[in-house]
Every structure is written in structure tokens, then in C-alpha cells.
Fold:
Amino acid sequence: QEYLPLEPWTADVWQRARAAGKFTKAHAGEFMPASFVDKVLDEIGAERIQHGVRSVEDPSTVQRLVDDQIALDVCPISNLKLAVQGVTTMADHPIRQLFDAGVKVTINSDDPFFFGNRLSEEYYALNQDLGFSKEELTQIAGNGFDIALVDESIRQRLKDELADYCAG
Structure:
């Protein structure tokens, strides 16, 4: 599928942001298909993708996310409420396929004021409707700490706290 080209200055802005030490992420793959995720990765070099759930439509995009360790910040309940392509029930949500394929996913609540949900409800839905185990949910939570833009000592402390909490 063809898209309008990104503005000519867009890639330059993102390149300058990375050169200045800024982390770059882009909103893609929620309403636009997997090919748009590839376009964003190719043209602006995003280091993380917000949503990205439609990546599942193209196995090569999924494999690219795995190989390049591009994390997806997934918001399952908002995807359901917005009726993102093919998600008419939580059981239809592609996060299970992405996770099982090895994509590094994190769980987010998107806009709690607008969608009326909390992060805990996202995890509950994954467990109840998609069969994610406690261990898998722990891995997803850990993914969030892995990609967090924090000092390594803070990251390790948070991961230790998560391990202690989940062991109990």
C-alpha cells in the first residue's frame, strides 16, 4: 500500500533528535497497516512504536520487530474500544500473536481519562481473555523496565522489586 510521503524535513528532525541524544518513538500500526510501521522504521528510524498491533498482518514486519528489538507499547483496551482493525473482542486482540512471536511488548493504558481504564485492568484482560499466565505477564511488565529510559541502577532495582512481588 502506498502512503503520502512524510514531509521532507521529518526524517531530518528525527535524525537531529537522535544525534542530540533523544530517544525516538512513533505512533504507528494502530489504524494504519504493518506496511506503515515499516515506513516509520525506514524513513524516520523510530526506536520504539506506540501501538503497532497491526504489525501482525505481515510476518516480515513482525520478524523485523523481533530482530531489531523494537518494542511495541500496546494499549489493548483502547484498541478494543476504538475497534482497531479486527479487534471486536479482547480475545481478538493480536498481542498474543505478537508476544508468542517474540516481539517485545509492553502494556499501557493509553488515555485513562478518555477510555476509563487502569493499567491493572489491561493486565486482567490479558489474563482473562487471552490466557496470559502470571509468568508471561511478569515478562511483559519486565519489558517495560527493560526499555525504560532510566539509569541502569534504577532499572535493576525495579526489576528486582518486580521479581520479589511476583515470587510472593
Summary: The chain has nine helices and four strands. Residues 152-167 form the longest helix (16 residues). Strands lie at 25-28, 48-51, 71-74, 105-107. The first strand starts at residue 25 and ends at 28.
